[in-house]
Design goal:
Layout (H helix, E strand, L loop, with lengths): L14 H11 L14 H10 L16 H18 L7 H4 L4 H18 L7 H5 L19
Helix pairs in contact: 2-3, 2-5
Pfam families: CH
GO molecular function: microtubule binding
Subcellular location: Cytoplasm, Cytoskeleton
Length: 147
């Protein structure tokens, strides 16, 4: 399910296209790829494709500290395992909020999303509001969290 190699067309998608895609399909207002470092967006992307496989009530949209980001990535990894997605997530790289690492992860996610499609009538805001800080999350600037 994760046979999206580094030479796949996914990795030739630019920052602007990724941000436009995320903002449109996830109803966010992200301006930087690095803002995905919390892992919350990744959890919701997986939930949009595989509803019910991610416990959205446990996703922390207010995450500001590394340990909170790690908790979100643990939720994501359990979701991958449950679904059978063989994808290594280098959490230590992603939580540093470095552009290239997070760009490549979101490129992979965009391709996965395109290949597997979101379920129709997915309630982005309804699902997000189940998590800590999710009801008010649209990303209003600053570090890695929401607000």
């Amino acid at each position: 399910m994760s046979n999206i190699g580094m030479m796949d067309q996914a990795y030739f998608v630019g920052r602007r296209e990724i941000l436009e895609w995320l903002n449109e399909c996830m109803n966010t207002n992200l301006s930087k790829i690095e803002q995905t470092a919390t892992g919350a967006i990744a959890c919701q992307l997986l939930d949009a494709v595989h509803p019910g496989q991610i416990p959205m009530s446990k996703v922390n949209w207010d995450a500001k500290q590394d340990y909170e980001f790690i908790d979100n990535y643990k939720i994501l990894q359990r979701g991958f395992d449950k679904i059978g997605i063989d994808k290594h997530v280098d959490v230590q790289k992603l939580i540093r909020a470095r552009y290239q690492d997070n760009l490549e992860f979101m490129q992979w996610f965009k391709r996965y999303f395109e290949l597997n499609g979101p379920v129709s009538a997915y309630d982005v805001m309804g699902q997000r509001s189940k998590g800590k800080g999710g009801a008010r999350y649209r990303y209003s600037g600053g570090g890695g969290g929401g607000g």
